[in-house]
Write a structure and sequence with these properties.
By secondary structure, the chain is α/β, with parallel strands linked by helices. It is 47% helix and 17% strand. It folds into 2 domains: 31-128 and 254-322, D-Maltodextrin-Binding Protein, domain 2 (3-Layer(aba) Sandwich), CATH 3.40.190; 131-245, Periplasmic binding protein-like II (D-Maltodextrin-Binding Protein, domain 2, 3-Layer(aba) Sandwich). 44% of the residues are buried.
């Protein structure tokens, strides 16, 4: 009798598990059957927004459903992240995570979501390095000369950023640590203000995004010394990397990637990943993303998750060393 009861329980457990798998498979087979949203934490018109719309348009063609981009700026993408983290886990609400998303998770301990646990990380979409620029009046023509000048005048050179805790600020702090120089951070209210101040000579150097820097570089109001990624950038082919120029191993770039709520069925995550990888790796999309100052890139969900975990560890250490605190 005891054996019969045990067999019945095993049968029921298997049936329940089978039903769960069937539901997941059915959801994946029916997906998508209505419009999809990509929520971004940036205002319309910027390079990140443009990339979201480019990817959304091509995903719409690939998946056969409209893909709408929704802008929810504020709190360095935390507002947008929370909106997606608390959305129904059905695969119809995606979040375009950025470098500032990871920074906020490393900097703030009271966020209403957990970047690692509240999301399923679908795929990287693009990587955007920064560029070390100096005012033309600064008597340097290379990173080595800049480092030598900074070491000879500790505390005299200053660098600007769009604000304390911004990704540009962290790029500057990483440079300070790697180069062993004492340069002073000057926070501004935004990237435009920081770039204008650098072009006006108010600050000696900065680490803007490539789209923000290009017009001033083309007008020769700023001089590019190096890019922060491990590889050179196609829109600035003659500009060396910091790794090449003076700081071996230096690698700092902003990653854009798409996430969904953590409980979205794995089958849907796999389907979305396949569509994103296909879209991002077309020649047309690579060129369109390149024009925004980013390099197109894709990944498996597992690789993207590992990337976020590693970035959180590195950024948390950097924030602690730099003595940064959330405002």
């Amino acid at each position: 009798m005891r054996n019969v009861r045990a067999n019945i329980l095993l049968f029921l457990a298997a049936a329940v598990a089978g039903d769960g798998l069937a539901v997941g498979e059915a959801a994946a087979q029916a997906y998508p059957n209505k419009p999809i949203r990509i929520i971004t934490g940036f205002v319309a018109g910027g390079s990140t927004d443009v990339i979201a719309r480019l990817v959304g348009q091509k995903l719409s063609e690939s998946l056969g459903q409209p893909v709408v981009v929704e802008n929810r700026p504020g709190a360095s993408t935390a507002i947008a992240a929370e909106r997606v983290a608390t959305s129904p886990p059905d695969g119809y609400t995606l979040f375009l995570a950025a470098a500032s998303t990871t920074i906020q998770s490393a900097l703030r301990k009271n966020l209403p979501y957990d970047l690692e646990r509240s999301f399923a990380h679908v795929s990287v979409v693009a990587v955007g390095p920064f560029v070390l620029v100096v005012h033309p009046s600064l008597p340097v023509h290379s990173v080595k000369e800049l480092i030598a000048l900074a070491r000879s005048q500790p505390g005299k050179l200053n660098y600007g950023s769009p604000g304390t805790g911004s990704v540009n600020h962290l790029a500057g702090e990483l440079f300070k640590l790697g180069a062993k120089v004492d340069i002073v951070h000057v926070p501004y209210k935004g990237s435009a203000e920081s770039s204008v101040a650098n072009a006006a000579g108010e600050i000696a150097l900065s680490f803007p995004s490539i789209p923000a820097a290009l017009p001033l570089l083309e007008a020769r109001r700023l001089t590019a010394l190096a890019v922060t990624s491990i590889s050179r950038v196609s829109v600035l082919p003659s500009v060396p990397t910091l790794d090449e120029a003076a700081l071996p191993g230096f690698n700092f770039a902003g990653v854009l990637g798409l996430c969904v709520p953590a409980a979205v069925p794995k089958e849907i995550v796999t389907q979305l990943n396949a569509a994103i990888v296909k879209v991002v790796n077309t020649a047309e999309m690579k060129e369109a993303i390149r024009k925004q100052g980013f390099e197109a890139q894709s990944s498996t969900p597992e690789h993207y998750t590992t990337l976020i975990q590693n970035d959180l560890v590195k950024l948390t250490k950097l924030i602690k060393i730099a003595g940064m605190k959330a405002d």
